[in-house]
Write a structure and sequence with these properties.
The protein is of the alpha/beta class. The protein is built from ten helices and 20 strands.
Length: 407
């Protein structure tokens, strides 16, 4: 497979009577337990047709019987067949949308199902693309999609000098795919400098978390700036220092960034020096759950506390454990906020729905004997669009509160 071929089989997936509720509501996934039978010859990764129990045509999609998500729809119209022209149109539409809603110097160019290219994400860091492919069908076409991305960007005068693949997530194993990373095309220096909200960062696309940098918090990082001038700030789970450096650039008097990763702390420290902010922003390698109680015992207080934890759950089965983690981290963070100070807190797990996160934060505030005045509720940046009926595309919930002591 060259990455430039679309294999269309004559097979049909027939749904059980009463099933297919997800795709009937606008979703793109067909689960294995919804299928009555598969008629015709195919290979996993091929494009097949999906029909309801009464043979009503419902769409074209990639099949993979090794995956719980057996079919990922690509098209709902019989005359809108999956062709290279359709793929290129999807890429062009994705780029046109981002030009209208976000600073595109660095952005998420393709966001899987939300751009109707299920299973693949592509991030643009300046003149570098980073690809993450998580589904068999789209994995076959990743090189085609990359070439179309290059073509579409070139038409706007943007030359891509390199592409790196970060398809090393464990979830690929559920698709029967190996975890892999490496160059697509020519080699290049994988340490890339980007600018976001006026702050410069070195992004390590080879060894950094995910694709190297979390672009989804771009607008949320800008949103906390107005609260930080002249303030003492604590940034927890700082990763490469992005919230911390936005606070420092906004005029904070001091910023402490904390992360459990030695690599992340080293990168954050380097980014602080890159911006001339290393006298304001300092970074410490520590487990946040251990450090915050220690800071509380020492009587430390901060004007602004930022909590940007990793997803504590990646499945519904572990949601109870995740709730405990979110409650604990918010409880500890709230206790460190000065009376009248501010808390920015979030969850990046789509299993932690807004109502459950709100309930968890509310309980943490009660236990910390704090009152919360909500300033803003925010979500992921618009280059990570939320496709209604595809729950997985809505994952980032971000609150900013003023925190006051109980009267």
């Amino acid at each position: 497979m060259t990455g430039k071929e679309i294999v269309v089989s004559d097979a049909k997936v027939i749904l059980k009577k009463g099933e297919g509720r997800t795709i009937k509501a606008g979703g793109l996934w067909v689960y294995d337990n919804e299928i009555d039978q598969i008629v015709g010859d195919y290979e996993n990764g091929d494009i097949i047709e999906v029909h309801d129990f009464d043979d009503y045509f419902m769409g074209y999609g990639f099949i993979n019987t090794k995956s719980t998500i057996t079919v990922r729809l690509m098209s709902r119209k019989r005359d809108n067949k999956v062709t290279p022209d359709l793929i290129k149109k999807r890429v062009q539409n994705a780029w046109n949308y981002r030009k209208e809603v976000i600073d595109t110097s660095s952005c998420r160019l393709i966001f899987g199902e939300a751009d109707f290219l299920p299973g693949i994400t592509i991030d643009k860091f300046s003149d570098i693309l980073v690809v993450e492919s998580l589904a068999l069908g789209i994995d076959r076409l990743k090189e085609m999609i990359v070439e179309y991305c290059k073509d579409v960007l070139a038409a706007d005068g943007i030359t891509i000098r390199g592409v790196y693949e970060r398809s090393d997530a464990k979830v690929r194993e559920h698709e029967g795919l190996p975890r892999t990373k490496g160059f697509i095309g020519d080699r290049f220096d994988t340490k890339v400098e980007i600018v976001e909200n006026g702050v410069h960062y070195y992004v390590d696309v080879e060894n950094g978390q995910k694709t190297g940098f979390f672009l989804d918090q771009k607008n949320n990082r800008a949103a906390i700036r107005g609260l930080c001038k002249g303030k003492k700030v604590l940034d927890c789970f700082t990763h490469t220092g992005s919230f911390a450096l936005n606070a420092a650039a906004a005029g904070a008097s001091s910023v402490l960034g904390v992360d459990a990763s030695d690599l992340g702390v080293a990168q954050a420290t380097e980014n602080a020096k890159l911006n001339g902010l290393d006298s304001i922003a300092t970074f410490q390698c520590a487990d946040v759950f251990d450090l915050l109680p220690d800071l509380e015992k020492k009587g430390e207080k901060f004007d602004v506390v930022i909590l940007d934890p990793p997803a504590f759950t990646k499945s519904r089965a572990s949601i109870k454990k995740a709730v405990t983690g979110y409650r604990e981290i918010n409880l500890r963070g709230l206790k460190l906020v000065k009376d009248g100070g501010y808390l920015a807190t979030c969850s990046c797990s789509h299993f932690m729905d807004p109502a459950l996160l709100e309930k968890t934060i509310r309980e943490a505030a009660r236990d910390a004997h704090k009152r919360l005045r909500q300033i803003e509720f925010r979500q992921q940046a618009p280059d990570h669009p939320i496709l209604w009926a595809n729950d997985a595309s809505y994952y980032l919930k971000f609150y900013i509160f003023q925190v006051v002591d109980e009267m």
